[in-house]
Design goal:
It is built from 14 helices and 15 strands. By secondary structure, the protein is α/β, with parallel strands linked by helices. The chain is globular, with a radius of gyration of 25 Å. GO terms for molecular function: protein homodimerization activity; pyridoxal phosphate binding; serine decarboxylase activity.
Length: 484
């Protein structure tokens, strides 16, 4: 057979053994070459070089999983009798569970709430729940959870102040899908519009621009990470003949900065863009659910001229699988929707099939906590974030915390193993910890003790000096020898 020559020798033998079995139809086997393994760098990390304003720096990517993956093996003929295969799988899963416990214990850098218990939903794991099509129109596929999904959407509609008959939305498969959908709606409303996004917007915004072949203008940011509306104004005035599609960050990915929505709208109006010449998508992946419960915070509401809001369900809410909520105005969605006879429903989503289990998890959490419960958790996160910031500052470490944020940004640790151990998110010379409801003072103290001990070796005897982070965090937040 032509394909066998391209396979590794050990796999070649396995395939030949399979083809010699009398109960196997050779015509049913599709043989394809195995893709080449990506070359590893030092310590198993794939490395690339990126040129920035300060010259070249090295980006360290994660380790290659091929070195630690769990192989899928064919069962032996007697496995059904001996149970060896089941025992092997049980052992692998038990060890994997232990690794998850350890990784959860040392999780600080990504905005996931790991504090949840959904034991009551285990009874539903045996069902293939699929919410394909429009959430508000039942399809021919009856094993769905639309009644839960719409209940969740109504809850968020109340939070963002839009009436039931004025909005459309759905539970997405992740936060990126919410951004892709929001930008797509804006593009459909204004086919010749220009997308404006701050340079610290989530990478999915620029992915959307590439996917939809949109003209995209990057806006400069302040040291806080917030969009620079002076630069926004200048770039708007260069393109007054084209409608504006704007991504507003309700918490940037790295610094947790909240763009000033009111100032963005004011800038648009002052530049001669009436409400029917712009579309605003609010990326509220993490802080979209936190901001409503922060005292004196500017509010995201459909009472303002915004087009859509998205939020992640696996972040602050604490859903165990990636998901999100996307809500837009009903008047906009007709530009996307189409009737699908195969479903006996309408569709205006990005994906076809949608996870029907996610609405159940979200519904349970919203019912259990409610607005008051989320308010308490937000206050706890902000309090603990300030505690971490103060402890880092007391230790002589450059650190910044935006007023409306629980993302603590500080000097990037010099040890990549330490970064991996605590799963820190890094960019250039800075790293951050996102303080979530599952992050306790005890965990923060353990992290701080380890970090201070490590730094005593990194900067031993004054041989090395902490980097200057004035340009990234502002002079007032820099603790380098020049600014301390």
């Amino acid at each position: 057979m032509a394909g066998l020559a391209t396979l590794p020798q050990e796999l070649n033998h396995d395939v030949v053994d399979l083809l010699n079995r009398k109960d196997l139809d050779p015509m049913a086997v599709v043989l394809e070459p195995i893709p080449p393994v990506v070359c590893n760098g030092e310590n198993g990390a794939v490395k690339k070089m990126k040129t920035g304003e300060n010259g070249e720096r090295e980006i360290v990517l994660g380790r290659n999983i091929h070195s630690s993956c769990f192989d899928v093996t064919e069962p032996e003929d007697n496995d059904g009798v001996t149970g060896d295969k089941e025992a092997y799988m049980a052992g692998v899963l038990a060890r994997y569970r232990q690794s998850l416990l350890e990784r959860t214990k040392h999780h600080l850098g990504y905005p996931y709430n790991l504090d949840f218990d959904y034991g009551a939903l285990s009874q539903l794991q045996h069902f293939s729940i699929n919410n394909l099509g429009d959430p508000f129109i039942e399809s021919n596929y009856g094993v769905h959870s639309r009644q839960f999904e719409v209940g969740v959407l109504d809850w968020f509609a109340r939070l963002w102040e839009i009436e039931k008959d004025q909005y459309w939305g759905y539970i997405t498969n992740c936060g990126t899908e919410g951004n892709l959908h929001g930008i797509l709606v804006g593009r459909e409303v204004f086919p010749d519009g220009i997308l404006y996004a701050s340079k610290e917007s989530h990478y999915s915004i620029f992915k959307a621009a590439r996917m939809y072949r949109m003209d995209c203008v990057k806006i400069e940011t302040l040291s806080s990470g917030e969009v620079d509306c002076d630069d926004f104004r200048a770039k708007l005035l260069q393109n007054k003949d084209k409608p504006a599609i704007i991504n507003v960050n309700i918490g940037t990915t790295v610094k947790g900065a909240v763009d000033d929505l009111d100032l963005v709208i004011q800038t648009l109006e002052e530049c001669g863009f009436p409400h029917n010449r712009f579309y605003i998508h609010c990326d509220g992946a993490l802080f979209g659910l936190m901001l409503p419960f922060v005292t004196r915070a500017p509010q995201v509401t459909f009472k303002k001229p915004i087009g859509s809001v998205s939020v992640s369900g696996h972040k602050f809410v604490g859903c165990p699988m990636p998901c999100g909520v996307q809500i837009t105005r009903m008047e906009h969605i007709n530009t996307l929707s189409s009737n699908v006879e195969y479903l006996a429903s309408r569709d205006a989503t990005i994906m076809g099939s949608r996870n029907g289990h996610a609405p159940l998890f979200l519904w349970c959490t919203l019912n259990r906590k409610g607005y008051r419960g989320f308010q308490k958790e937000v206050q706890k996160c902000l309090r603990n974030a300030h505690y971490l910031k103060d402890r880092l500052r007391d230790a002589g470490i450059s650190v910044m915390l935006n007023e409306l944020s629980s993302t603590v940004v500080f000097e990037r640790p010099r040890d990549e193993e330490f970064i991996r151990r605590w799963q820190l998110a890094c960019q250039g010379s800075i790293a951050h910890v996102v303080v979530m409801p599952s992050v306790t003072i005890e965990k923060l103290n353990t992290f701080l003790d380890e970090l201070v001990e490590k730094r005593s070796t990194w900067y031993k005897d004054g041989g090395n000096q902490p980097p200057c982070l004035a340009s990234e965090l502002g002079k007032e937040n820099c603790a380098c020898p020049m600014h301390e």
